[in-house]
Amino acid sequence: MFQWLDTEGAPLKHHIPGSTNYLPDLKIRGGSFDKGEPSTQPFPLNANFVSESILSEELRNEIHKRVVGQKKSIRAVSAELGVDMRRVAAVCRLVEMEKRWKQQGKPLALPYARAVHEMVPTTPLQDSRHQRQTPHESINDLPAHRLTNAQIFYPVSESRQFTRIEAGRVFSAAPARDHRIVTEEAANPSEAMSRITQNPSRIETVGKGAKEQPVLQPADVRIPHPHLVVHERQRIANPNEFQLVRKAYDARLREEEEIERDRKLIAQERRERQLSRVQPESSRFEFRIKDVVVSKETTGSDGRGARAPGRRYGVPSYDRKKGQIKIPTQVVV
Amino acid sequence: MVVRIRLARFGNKHQPFYNIIVAQARSARDSKPLEVIGTLNPFPQRPTNLSEQEARTARAYKEISLDRSRVKYWLGVGAQPSDPVWRILNLAGLVQQKQQSPK
Amino acid sequence: MRNRATTPLSKAKIRQSWSKYNLYNLSRSRDPRTAQRTFFQQKWTAKSLSRNYHGEQVRESEWERMFSRRLRSVVPMDPYKLARDDGSGMAAGRGSGLEKFPEENPTPKRLLPASRNPNATPYTHMTFAPLERRLDVAIFRALFASSTRQARQFVVHGSVTVNGKKMRYPGYLLNPGDMFQVDTERVMFATGAPKDKFERREGRVERKKAEAKDAEAEGEEAAAEEAKENESEGETKEAEEETLDTRGTLKTLLDQAKSIMTSNKDVLPAKRKQEIRGFQKAIRRVMSKSPDSSILAANLETQFAEIMKVLKAKKIETKEAKGSKKETKDSQKTETAPTTPEAKGTETAATGENKPTEALNEAFRQAAQNPEEELDTSELTDEEFEVLRHALVQLRDNPIDSTKPYATPWRPRDYMSAFAFVPRYLEVNHNICAAVYLRHPVARPGSSEVPTPFGENIATAAFSWYLRRR
């Protein structure tokens, strides 16, 4: 082993700043250092795992600047820089925390961070304004839905307009839509899609009782940035009018944000309406009394409906059984 | 026989959780009731997402859920709340505070 | 000493660890042979191999409960394609004349096996995805610990917080959006090179000194003060001697800064340390020149701030001097003179940040070419300031401190780079040693996010083992 470490494995001992230094590289470059691109595959046997780039320090600060400083929405920043929305939110949280640490004078692990950023591929920030920022990751990931696992043989007549919307209905066993509605929607697909994304609570459902579930929606709606599809449609329709399309894009983004904010506000208000807070003089606690509904609809015919209040009967508690792991399942901020 | 509005204990050891139920007075505590009309979590919860200033003055809270219309119905047909449930219903403003019995 | 049970050389087991033994085992790992072995045997081998890596600290029954046959996957969608095509072409094609047959290749494409098709989704690599949710594994994946076992220890010893609350369970399953944070000192210890014999001894001596000092302070304060005064007197005397020749001190300072910045990893750590110590001393000497000499006793941070202030003041002076010089020159040539010195300064700063060593070399070459002239007008050039600044920054960020449990100045441990990668389901901020678990790992066409050292055939066999159809 030590012989291997001294001869073949010697290049792995120290990192090469600014490039990866993984095991499969040894075989490619055969001990010499600079031959071709460094490999991004850490494990020799697994070509399906690649070491993907992380956000560089500058890009991270840029994201924070845009979201916190310029008050842009997470959605807009995500589309601009090609970074997932969840990642944008996380970066803001982490950078904010780093700032707080600096204020408090806590020691940061700077040499360690620098070394890691030298070892791992990073996505740099494009410094000039004219160059487009290279996307960090794909922002429109469509999760594979459970319903699409089935392989369905579904004969369709040639004359029928059978789009992704229809395919989703077939997967969730919903009845076919009226011909007129289909042609109407096909005439203006952008509006039809935005109707769904702006009112997610009005999606049609199939099934009854506990089996009730929303109809599987097409990919245009289920991706994180449906507004980009509309934008692309506009670009295809008006190939030479960049300014116009850009303006329409900004307007749409703003509109979407407003609608989302309104939706959140309404939901919050509804929650507040259902909740009454009592702070009695005699107690040091506050009591939050939530209104619930006990009726045939919520309890179901057998009295076990999931929407009714209370713990269920006939479900034993296994908390004293052997092998039950009692560790917290979540930590609330 | 009397119909009572009372608590039924659920949850784990050292971690109670109560259903507010309507049941015959003589039936077992955790047996199947006539109706479940709410819940009570006696563990005080810390309010979250607060600024530091708010966190200093904020009270811990206990969660109660209740169907007020069903409570009114059962009180109307003569169901008798137990003492703990009486206190909860008093908090919800559905009954008057119980008079202390003279000693 | 390595743990012989976990990283044996005789029967190679690949672990979640950065040890060199593990690296060697990884380098000689091959796919197990499948010829003349029953399917059960193949599955058994695959299961045991992959379980040695994935959740080796988790009991088998515990893992079996976590296993899920539902493997998460995503498909990256292109909005352009979605906008172009509403999918109706797929159904309308048959028989309507819309379907196009490729002329050159009339035979349908042969379905490649998943291992050779670069666009196939490697589902079975996701077999152990539920384990990546565990807190100890996530800490290891975020490069905060050198092995999962160590990460586990960090959790158990209470140096890990989740969402700001201390979490003592290594088996805590992270939820999307959870932020976990490890004590920076622990991380530096885990990922930094270990101390050698001499450094350990230094640490011991330091500790003893501190203890002795404490005792002294308790006993007789006056004596200590006296001693201090004597010391400081001696120091000032020394400083006076040194400061007689400012040019000389600055020059030596620069030399030392250069050697610090340019020295590569081949230099022995001990020698490097000597250099850095010398530099520190030189800085002290320079500082003793400044009117407020009380900084000497203060900590490194204030020292740094002070020296930066001094340097800045000097820089402004130089700039003014230079500017005036330039102006005179320019006025001789042309009337319109842009403010070049500032631009130059920013330029050097930018290059300096990118490639410190190159800028340094350049600076020193320049300094060597015209030493008298520059030092006559002003003591330092812009580039030299940059050099000094860099050396100072490094000194401040990565100080020598023998009380730390790792070798100082901090450097990454050997063979760390071979294992250094951060999977996409984590967003890590290494400065504060905190990370956010964004989402569960997923497979996508061509790649899976669960880091596993095994190939397709082991992954598939292991997955089918846990399907329990054997």
Automatic annotation (TrEMBL), chain A:
Pfam (any one): Bot1p
Location of region: Disordered: 296-320
PANTHER family: 37S RIBOSOMAL PROTEIN S35, MITOCHONDRIAL, SMALL RIBOSOMAL SUBUNIT PROTEIN MS45
Protein name: Eukaryotic mitochondrial regulator protein-domain-containing protein
TrEMBL record, chain B:
Database matches in InterPro entries: Ribosomal_bS16, Ribosomal_bS16_dom_sf
Keywords for the protein's UniProt record, in alphabetical order: Ribonucleoprotein, Ribosomal protein
Cellular component GO terms, alphabetical: ribosome
Presence of keyword Ribosomal protein: yes
KW Ribosomal protein (keyword) present: yes
Domain of life where this protein originates: Eukaryota
Pfam (any one): Ribosomal_S16
NCBIfam families: S16
PANTHER family documented for this protein: 30S RIBOSOMAL PROTEIN S16, SMALL RIBOSOMAL SUBUNIT PROTEIN BS16M
Family of this protein: Belongs to the bacterial ribosomal protein bS16 family.
Official protein name in the record: Ribosomal protein S16 domain-containing protein
From TrEMBL, chain C:
RNA-binding S4 domain boundaries: 133-193
Residue spans of biased composition, Basic and acidic residues class: 199-216, 225-237, 319-333
Superkingdom field: Eukaryota
Keywords: Ribonucleoprotein, Ribosomal protein, RNA-binding, rRNA-binding
Region entry Disordered, spans: 85-121, 199-244, 319-355
Keyword tRNA-binding among UniProt keywords: no
Pfam families: S4
Signal peptide range: none
Record's keyword annotation contains rRNA-binding: yes
SUPFAM superfamilies xref list: Alpha-L RNA-binding motif
PANTHER family membership: 30S 40S RIBOSOMAL PROTEIN, SMALL RIBOSOMAL SUBUNIT PROTEIN US4M
Similarity comment: Belongs to the universal ribosomal protein uS4 family.
Name of the protein in its database record: RNA-binding S4 domain-containing protein
